[in-house]
Amino acid sequence: MKTPTSADALRVARALLGLSQREAAAAAEMTQKALSAAESGKNSLLETNLQLIRFYEGRGIEFLGEARIGREIAGAGARFRGPPGPGSDLAETSEFHSMPYGVSFLAARSLLGEEQAYVAAKSGLPLKTIRALEHGATWSAPTAQLRAFYEAAGVRFTGWGDVETGRYYRVGVRWAAQKSQDVSGEAVANGDVVDS
């Protein structure tokens, strides 16, 4: 039996794929109202949650988190499936989704469940900069500032980069581990974490 995931992780999965609620609902063969309920965590059916998990997993998404009976999922999030880490066979990496940048700020905002205007106000960056960074702009100072904002809010970025190809794999976000939770991870040079 599959375990359902959190509403936060469902929003992240959709953001990583760059789908609107309408597009995701149509592709997953459900109503937009059902998808919206699943992403809000209110009045959502278990069947809908599991249907969305199957849909996103079929498109290369991997859900993250530790489930315990009677508790919320700890460290919930999502990322693209990918090779285990740096040093992976380059032939192996070609079958996985890769990105030209190592963070998805849209996925981070989706994890928080906030609007761009809120992130702009709280991070101190202009709204147009938030929009540009969410669409892949890679300006050093604003990128560092926005990443610091999300990390302070409890967002943990995942993924690793391949120096030879300039591509990033296993890009995603999850809630940072609680102090009592043990999440295995190996730090890599760019500060991202490679999860096992």
UniProtKB/TrEMBL annotation:
Classification via InterPro entries: Cro/C1-type_HTH (IPR001387), Lambda_DNA-bd_dom_sf (IPR010982)
Pfam family for this entry, one: HTH_3
Origin organism lineage: Bacteria, Pseudomonadati, Pseudomonadota, Alphaproteobacteria, Hyphomicrobiales
Domain HTH cro/C1-type: residue ranges: 10-44
Name this polypeptide is given: Helix-turn-helix domain-containing protein
Domain of life: Bacteria
Coiled-coil regions, chain positions: none
Stored CDD domains: HTH_XRE (cd00093)
Database matches in PROSITE patterns: HTH_CROC1
